Fold this protein.
Amino acid sequence: MDAVVTVGIRALNRVTAQVAAVSYLHSFRVSFMNNQKQQKPTLTGQRFKTRKRDEKERFDPAQFQESIVQGLNQTGTDLEAVAKFLDASGAKLDYRRYAETLFDILVAGGMLAPGGTLAEDVIRTEFCLFTAQEDLDTMQAYAQVFNKLIRRYKYLEKGFEEEIKKLLLFLKGFTESERNKLAMLTGILLANGNISASILSSLFNENLVKEGVSAAFAVKLFKSWINEKDINSVAASLRKVGMDNRLMELFPANKRSCEHFSKYFTDAGLKELSDFARNQQSIGARKELQKELQEQMSRGDPFKDIIAYVKEEMKKTNISEQTMVGIVWSSVMSSVEWNKKEELVTEQAIKHLKQYSPLLKAFTSQGLSELTLLLKIQEYCYDNIHFMKAFQKIVVLLYKADVLSEEAILKWYNDAHVPKGKSVFLEQMKKFVEWLKNAEEESESEEEEAD
């Protein structure tokens, strides 16, 4: 009996141990799962492995230069191969950090020291812009290399523009042939829109200007620019960055005149640039003249003093009477705050122009000047809608004040008007023109009877 009890107790103990083990394992599993759910991510002690293709080789400038120079030596004069090499190298070399070194090598064959000389004790290549053939086709091919590189690695755009500015400041350190190549390349890059015309400010450096380097460089640059585009495109680019009125600064102060500029660039085969500069100077002079004229009018200066001043300026700046009457008209019409109501503005205009008719008369001594004034009046009345109904009254007033002659009015009416508001203004003038014609016929009849 005791043996049976003992066996039973042992069996019960084994079952109890098994249940406890199962219970323990279950508890451990639940605890582990809860910990997994509650555990928060941490970066402590973790390292992320970078893929090889994402890594950039961290060279110092000399090592970077060596890699680029070796590649250029291998590609040689094959610029298509050069472009492919540069495209591929950007994936492993740090162009962003060493952009200046990269461009120095492509242009001069190695890193440049201050002043434009090649830095000593550095590896160089003979395959670069400065050692290439000095002709437009080769420079266009090099421009394509730079264009492809910058399109592929957009972040190089600003660095490239800064590089060109730097190179222009280093012009004295380059040979004449090197300057010519750089000038042609720069003109092509400007034409293609790869760089802004603001880089030309480097050419206004006092030392470059004084020694004539800037003007000589500008000749080559503008020739290649105009060869790629035309003078209108060049003018638009210059205006965009405010360089259109600064071209005279290519010359020393004692030679900074329109006549000298015109002769220099015309003799160099750039008459279109000379004409552009002359026109810009004329526009500048006209703006200054109009500003002064408006100030004199606002001060209430006597007409005789204003007229004397304007005629003196016309001689100095070679402004024609036709141009001047347009300036006077604009000044007169902008010297007053016009009423916004159409029914009141006509009366205001007649009163105002009656006061200033002597000033207008002083600059309509020629038939062409009268016709110019008529066209200015037509355009003004069309562009300012409140004046649409005032046109005929303005013309009649100026006819009575001897500013406009009947010949000029008839000429305008018959065939010299512009399309702006043509039908409206011709209809307004119809009765007055008929009156002028009848008066002319009566005058002719009286003369015949007198004879």
Observations:
- Confidence is low (pLDDT under 50) at residues 41-56.
